[in-house]
Write a structure and sequence with these properties.
This protein is an all-alpha fold. Helices cover 87% and strands 0% of the residues. The two termini are 32 Å apart.
Length: 439
């Protein structure tokens, strides 16, 4: 328990500041531009997660071979992998920017975005998509820094850029009156600054990453290895996000007030769920280390300890929703929007009632991934996607906003129905492998 807590807490701060980016945009937009602008920004959150989540997953996967070469002491091989990371990340960034920037309005139409907010939604997400290259820059450089054993420096730069984001949000929205486009521009500039800081830190701090002339050549084998790690991790995010897009499309049919309520509650929920993200990342490392060492007994004990942590925090999160839901909702909306504020509070309560299933999703999925079975993590995402699609196609038309509230809880329960048996299957398979090696 102490070991898991010690590893999770620094990760938690990183996840909190990642949430800080989008939360500040939403809070300032809601308070200074009104509920329709809040709904416009919120309407893009699912498609934003679909695309940006893929970028983040790809970069995380790219960093794995880099960490292997660093651990093996193969510095020339490390530099060649980093060079090929740069080639691939650049190609992904250019292609994804062109495609998403050209299609983003049509995507919003497919999602049945309400007419009174579609222009603002387009203005926001178009700028975000134009910033895909800086998303790759930050996530690629921070991933390389972490692969070389430094997990603190990227968080420091992220904290700095978060405060820059606040200042730019206020300047662009209040002084330059740029509306939601200003909020998006502030996010892109802030992330660009953090990416440049990571790049300068690499140049100054890590001499082993100074790529020689002959090491820049593209290598087909290394690119296949990098894509083999990066693309599945990116798809893990995107498959889950497809269900969110379907659910968001159904929510859009309920009008901009419903979209605004889901937006505010989603941003608060993103913060409340950060401990589960930290637990998941911790268990990925914990599972990988102990599976490699053949210590399956430690995996079982660690899983039980982390589940206890998840259960305890789930109760705390529910109490926060019950007693502080209304004041938290009021941060995003004017007090006169009483109906929307009530919906935000109810949305938070329903979701946090199911936080223990969410804890299991994060803990078990990442543990299985760390134990060397990444395909199961993608399949769990498929179950989440199916549940959210079911909510979008069935629950929302039948029950309205109540159906929206139960969309994510249904996804977590569906994922657990797959992940819990999958864990026991993986554990038995590893047990046979460890026993065979011992013999």
């Amino acid at each position: 328990m102490k070991l898991i807590l010690g590893f999770s807490v620094p990760l938690l701060f990183g996840f909190l500041f990642q949430q800080f980016y989008s939360l500040v945009d939403t809070l300032i937009v809601g308070r200074f531009l009104g509920k329709e602008c809040l709904a416009a920004v919120g309407d893009t959150s699912s498609i934003n997660f679909l695309i940006i989540g893929f970028c983040m997953g790809v970069c995380s996967g790219f960093s794995i071979p880099v960490s292997h070469k660093f651990g093996a002491g193969d510095h020339p091989g490390l530099r060649r992998y980093v060079a090929n990371c740069i080639w691939l990340a650049s190609a992904f960034a250019v292609v994804m920017t062109i495609i998403t920037a050209c299609l983003c309005r049509q995507i919003l139409i497919w999602m049945r975005t309400p007419e009174n907010i579609i222009d603002r939604s387009y203005a926001y997400i178009w700028v975000i998509f134009l910033g895909i290259p800086v998303t790759f820059l930050y996530n690629m450089t921070s991933g390389v820094i972490r692969a070389l054993g430094d997990s603190k420096t990227p968080v420091i730069f992220l904290v700095m850029s978060s405060f820059l984001n606040i200042g730019l949000d206020l300047f662009f929205i209040l002084n330059l009156e740029m509306g939601v486009r200003g909020a998006a521009l502030a996010t892109v500039i802030s992330q660009g600054v953090s990416g440049i800081c990571c790049l300068l830190f690499i140049v100054k701090k890590f001499e082993i990453l100074h790529i020689r002339k002959g090491e820049w050549a593209p290598d087909g084998h290394k690119m296949r290895v990098l894509c083999g790690m990066g693309v599945p991790m990116g798809l893990q995010y995107s498959v889950t996000a497809i269900g969110s897009v379907i659910l968001q499309s159904a929510t859009n049919t309920l009008g901009s007030d419903a979209v605004a309520a889901v937006t505010a509650s989603g941003k608060i929920g993103g913060f409340l769920a950060c401990p589960f993200d930290a637990m998941g990342s911790t268990m990925a490392t914990y599972g990988g280390q102990n599976a490699g060492a053949g210590r399956l007994d430690r995996i079982s004990r660690g899983l039980k300890s982390c589940i206890l942590l998840g259960a305890g925090y789930s109760v705390i999160a529910l109490c926060i929703s019950v007693f502080l839901g209304r004041p938290l909702a009021s941060l995003f909306l004017d007090a006169s929007e009483a109906a929307i504020i009530n919906n935000v509070r109810m949305f938070m309560i329903v979701n946090t009632c199911f936080y223990f299933p969410l804890a299991l999703v994060n803990i078990i999925r990442f543990l299985i991934q760390g134990m060397g079975f990444p395909t199961f993590a993608i399949l769990a995402g498929v179950f989440e996607m199916a549940a959210r699609a079911l909510a979008g196609f069935v629950l929302v038309p039948a029950f309205g906003f109540t159906g929206v509230m139960f969309g994510s809880p249904a996804a977590w329960v569906f994922a657990d129905a797959f992940l819990i048996p999958a864990y026991f299957y993986v554990f038995r398979k590893l047990s046979r492998k460890v026993k065979g090696n011992a013999e």
